[in-house]
Design goal:
- By secondary structure, the protein is of the alpha+beta class.
- Helix content is about 45%, strand content about 25%.
- It has four helices and eight strands.
- Helix 1 packs antiparallel against helix 3.
- The mean pLDDT is about 85.
Length: about 160
C-alpha cells in the first residue's frame, strides 16, 4: 500500500495563492510595526491599539505560515502507520499499526484507540463529504491490511 496524503478541508496549493498569502502577511506585520513605532505616544494611552497591533501581527504570522505550506491539516495513511495533523501549529500524531488496538468509524468522526489506553479523535467536517468518505475507506483498508479491529457506528444526525 502506498502512502495516501489526504488534506482535511479545502487547501489551495497554488503557487500564486501562496505568494499572495506571504505578501499580505508581510504587509500586516509591517502595518503592525508601523503603528507601534509611529503611534507610541498614543499607544501608551489607548489599550485598543495594542489589541489591533497584536491582531495584525498574529494574522500576518498566520498568513506567512500558511503561505509556506506549514498550516496544512492532513492525514497520511501508509503501510504500517498513520500520520494525523489536526492542528496547524503542532506536529503530526504518528500512530503505528502495532500500537493501535481498535478503530471506531462514525459518520462525522473517527476514534483511534491505542493499546496504551490513549484515544485519538479525528472530527470530520460536513462541507467536504467526498473527502470524508475517502478517509473512511482508506482507514478501513489500512485496518484490514494490518488486522486492526474496526467498528462502524451509525448515528442519527
Amino acid at each position: 500500500m502506498e502512502t495516501k496524503h489526504i488534506p482535511l478541508g479545502n487547501i489551495e496549493n497554488n503557487r500564486l495563492v501562496n505568494i499572495v498569502r506571504v505578501l499580505f502577511g508581510a504587509v500586516c506585520i509591517a502595518i503592525a510595526v508601523f503603528w507601534m513605532i509611529f503611534n507610541l505616544n498614543s499607544v501608551i494611552n489607548s489599550g485598543t491599539i495594542w489589541i489591533t497591533i497584536l491582531f495584525l501581527a498574529g494574522f500576518g504570522f498566520y498568513l506567512i505560515w500558511a503561505g509556506f505550506g506549514k498550516a496544512e491539516r492532513f492525514i497520511e495513511i501508509g503501510n504500517y502507520k498513520i500520520a494525523l495533523k489536526k492542528y496547524i501549529f503542532r506536529q503530526p500524531i504518528i500512530m503505528d499499526a502495532r500500537e493501535t488496538d481498535k478503530i471506531q468509524l462514525y459518520p462525522l468522526k473517527i476514534i483511534f484507540l491505542l493499546k496504551s489506553g490513549k484515544k485519538v479523535l479525528l472530527r470530520l467536517g460536513t462541507m467536504y463529504y467526498e473527502s470524508n468518505e475517502t478517509i473512511k475507506d482508506e482507514i478501513a483498508k489500512y485496518a484490514e491490511e494490518n488486522k486492526i479491529t474496526t467498528e462502524v457506528f451509525q448515528e442519527e444526525i
